[in-house]
Amino acid sequence: MAKAEYKSSLRSKKLITDALVALLDEKTLDKITVTDIVKKADINRGTFYAHYESVSDVVTSIFESAYDIIKSSITTFHDDSQFDMGIMLKELQMVMERDFDFYKKIFSSDINMKIYEEISNVLISYVYDHESEVSTVSHEDFVFYTSFYSGGIIKLYRDWFIGELPMSFDELTARATVLLRELQHHVAN
Predict the structure, then answer these.
(1) Distances, alpha carbon 173 to alpha carbons 71, 116, 133, 135, 163, in Å
(2) 129 secondary structure, DSSP code
(3) What does the pLDDT look like over 19-77, one tens digit per residue?
(4) CA–CA distances in Å: residue 132 to residues 77, 114, 165
(5) CA nearest 101: which of 71, 67, 57, 62?
(6) Prediction pTM value
(7) How far apart are CA 113 and CA 55, in angstroms?
(8) Distance CA 12, CA 48 (A)
(9) Helix (H, G, I), strand (E, B) or coil at 10
């Protein structure tokens, strides 16, 4: 019985996230309501609230899932004792490529601060996990630099998704990696 409930739960969550992504073609994220999602997913409100508290909670869940995929990929396929921003950015790119339409819609929408923070937290969490390997500066300076870097990276990806940076996705990630490595070297010295 538990296996059937688990599959039903996964199916409901997928219906909800798919409905949210589809609605992004019609409205900006800040205009999407629970009612909109419920109608688009063809589920009842109880099903929605069994899994999420709000629209923002759905988006947060999507980004947490992305973070888990990135972290798992990095620790599975790479020597975790050797911190590398390039590996982290490449994994971030791969996650965005897997659900390209969603990320394009998110970055192209009037993204609100909560969502911007969730995306940024994917980067920050990974870097914080490796603070001792990356930085010789004080923890307070490290937090400052990390927040600065993550905001800049998110802005670069947003600009790329909306067509303001005329380069390939791979080139964007490669150039961002070079920049972050230079900044990382600066902070370490």
Answers:
(1) 17, 19, 22, 22, 15
(2) T
(3) 998 898 888 888 899 999 999 999 999 999 999 999 988 988 877 776 677 667 655 54
(4) 21, 28, 34
(5) 62
(6) 0.67
(7) 14
(8) 8
(9) helix
Same domain? 33 vs 115? no
Number of residues in the chain: 189
Closest CA to 20 of 57, 70, 68: 57
Give the C-alpha separation, 73 to 87, whole Å.
10
pLDDT band at 122 (very low <50, low <70, confident <90, very high): low
* Residue bearing tokens 């080139």: 171
Burial 145-184 (b: 16+ CB within 10 A, else e): bbeebbbbbbebbbebbeeebeeebeebbbebbeebeeeb
Tally the domains of the chain: 2
Same domain for 129 and 177, yes or no, is yes
Q: Which domain holds residue 41?
A: 1-52
**Helix (H) or strand (E) segment spanning residue 143:** helix 139-161
* CA-based nearest residue to 90, from 162, 176, 168: 176
Task: Report phi then psi at 83, rounded to 5.
Answer: -70, 135
The per-residue pLDDT for 82 is 57
